[in-house]
């Protein structure tokens, strides 16, 4: 069989050649040797001044140190700091005494204001006033409560009970009595012997229906005002 040759052979060769340096293979790199004529001269690295400007049109240029005619020097005004300070002291507000607390026999004292013992916060303008975010939150809660109460009232109005009229009451009563007569007729037609499970279940079902109809007929006959819900 043919000898195995990797597909990455060229890539490995390229990486190996790229990482090699000239010092490892062929010695130091060949660099151009400086010429003996280009030697370092004396004061060659010192900064050189710009060349002087020549006179233009016979006019002699003034040196840069001379100010122009439009230049106005700033005159310093002498201030009497003693009288100024005295006037500031006379017109200024007097310093307020600072509150101290002495807690030792040697007279060690400390300021009351940063210690927390001085009633500092009760003198604020907004002391005891509810913050804006609290009032805003209370208003939102109140509005939500009102919306909830309105929705509950609306739901109650939708589900409000109404009174049956006399005609509807009599019609329902007649229909219930008619159903009772039909079921009673079917109950009377049952066989005397109930020897099967089906006959027993049928008899119990008719008895339950008769009891429910008798209960409904008695409730409607007893109460003249009947309320029903709009569901």
From TrEMBL:
Coiled-coil ranges (or none):
none
Is ATP-binding a UniProt keyword of this protein?
no
According to the UniProt entry, its GO molecular function terms are: calmodulin binding
Listed under GO cellular component are: acrosomal vesicle; axonemal microtubule
Q: What positions does the domain Enkurin occupy?
A: 136-228
Compartments annotated for it: namely: Cell projection, Cilium; Cytoplasm, Cytoskeleton
Q: Region Disordered: which residues?
A: 18-63
Q: Does the keyword Cytoplasm apply?
A: yes
Signal peptide range equals none
**Alphabetized UniProt keyword annotations:** Cell projection, Cytoplasm, Cytoskeleton
From start to end residue, where is composition biased (Basic and acidic residues)?
40-60
PANTHER family assigned: ENKURIN, ENKURIN-RELATED
What name is this protein filed under? ENKUR protein
Q: Which organism is it from?
A: Rhodinocichla rosea
